[in-house]
Amino acid sequence: MKILVIRFSAIGDIVWTTPAIRCLKQQIPNAVIHFCTKKIYQEVVENNPYIDTFHFLDEKGLHFLLKTLQNENFDFVIDLHNNQRTAYLKFRLGKKSYTYKKLRFRRWLFVKFKLKNVLPKNHIADRYLETLKPLGIVPDQKGLDFFIAPNKIIPLDYFPELHQKEGFAVFVIGASYFTKRLPIQKMLALCKKITLPIVLIGGKEDQIMGDELINLFEKETQTKDFIFNTCGKLSIAQSASVVQQSKVVFAHDTGMMHIAAAFQKKLYSIWGSTVPELGLFPYKNENAILLENKNISCRPCSRMGKDACPKKHFKCMNDLDFSNVVIE
Question: Do residues 170 and 201 make contact, with C-beta atoms less than 8 angstroms apart?
Fold first, then answer.
């Protein structure tokens, strides 16, 4: 039984597909699982033992990808993205397909009018699994997966001596949108609460902010080499390796937060303009603590985040209070 699963982006969404992939592989006899995503996310899936073959959307384009997929003669297609490109692929492949329901109108009602009861209470990963019900797939309740290739594991001696000796906390300072990220002064306040040495994780775009955070921290605390900045220096899988080796993780609403959930890390999940009620909370991680401002009526102002606060006050992040947070 040859099955194609499609999810083009992004990191967190791809990680959410892992329970569905695992259940397909384990519950359908002789299942051969093909997975299709963007080339830039190859490291998110390439070491998953439940996937037999990978197909990547790259600079060659959608039509080249289609020709490759047509040669496979799939028995059916699982579309866990549900956009125009996946609709095109399904149409051209001409195979029986099962498609994730995005509930676009319900999400719009939730964000626009703050209607609390229009969305299901379950996680998007569970909604992916619901897509597989017609195939007889039963959720195994085992949470998310993330697998790291041996050559992507960061050795302990990569870190400063203090971090090697005492262990460390990870702070994922990056986020895809401004309103999902703490202002730097709030980051500083949080870092001053953390007792373990800290490793910063983020993309190249976060490197300067990471350096600035370190400078502010050292100036105010007179402490050197307590924060180690890896932003822009590591790949997705390498960053995941750092998360896996940490004792505790602090993360905004990002893909790396969901990778931390897959590792069952002690996780402080930081929320700004987006809300976990959209089915975005850390999945099946009893060690997760949500940090969010529930005292304002404008949250959520969007489903995915914005480049600026529509109200100009950014209270969802500026008013987050860490004074009573007990960080173990």
Answer: yes
